[in-house]
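Worked example

This section walks through a single chain of length 313. The input is the sequence exactly as stored; nothing has been trimmed or padded.
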Amino acid sequence: MKHQENKAPQISKEELNVRGRYVQVDSVRLDNKAIVAWGKLLTTAWILEDLYTDVDDPELLIKGMKEAGLTADIFTFFERFPEDNPKFDYYMEWEAYSILPVTTYDDWYEKQIRKTTRHSVRAAAKKGVVTRMAEFNDDLVKGIMDIYDETPTRQGKPFWHYKKGFEVLKEDLSRDLDRSEFIGAYYNDELIGFIKMLYADKVADPVLCISKMKHYDKRPNNALFAQAVKIAEERNIPYLHYGMWRRGSHAKFLAANGFKKVLCPRYFCPLTVKGKIALKMRLHKDLNRVLQGNIKGKVVEIRESINKLTSRK
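Given that input, the structure is written out below as tokens.
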């Protein structure tokens, strides 16, 4: 019987959502984790669903990436909540996430949310808003498309999903249907808001939550979050997660609905000389963050510095 050698992991392609548009990026599967690599000035590798994935041996993943030929300057991974005690020796920064601990709906309603939020939840019901699970079908997609196409801007920014078209929107919404479901907010049988809930381990993630602006007075988003908490209780899910903690009206809304700012460790491991330089220059984060604070003029200078230093090696 011939000895079967272990095959090196192979590079494949994965679709990545970048600002509402899907792009093809290099990917490799290691230890049942999809690791993707993407970036222009710097190429960063990360676990595709690191918010739902525990990392026990990052060196094993780094070794596998190199064996597969996945090219990246920096590998980053996340230590999941409720973990707040860094256990690895890599360069680390704290990241703030929006987390709602869930025990019971009554506890959330009576103790975790503000008086104004309780009023909004009651007001939604009094004004006729009904929340219920929504089957994914063409009618739901048309209802969501009607919500998306209400306005080309939201919160003062261009809205990514505006006028996408039925087929494109249906394909987007159908992703991860095996572990997600939709909650709809209805007024006179009209879909005026919805949540797409993604389930992973001990976390439920409302990856999409949006409603019609013309029905703002009926507080559909508050009604939707209340329904999400009920579902979490029914399924013994201890946490709702709603993305990174952001300042301004977004943070105020989440805090009013019981979400807390939770700090968790994120690690950055340089894989190339460019990656090491980028970490020293704090250029390892999203360029949108780097461009804040009147430093646009320094980006070309930084790029040239990196090129000069790497060319000497």
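What to look for: The chain is about 30% helix and 30% strand.
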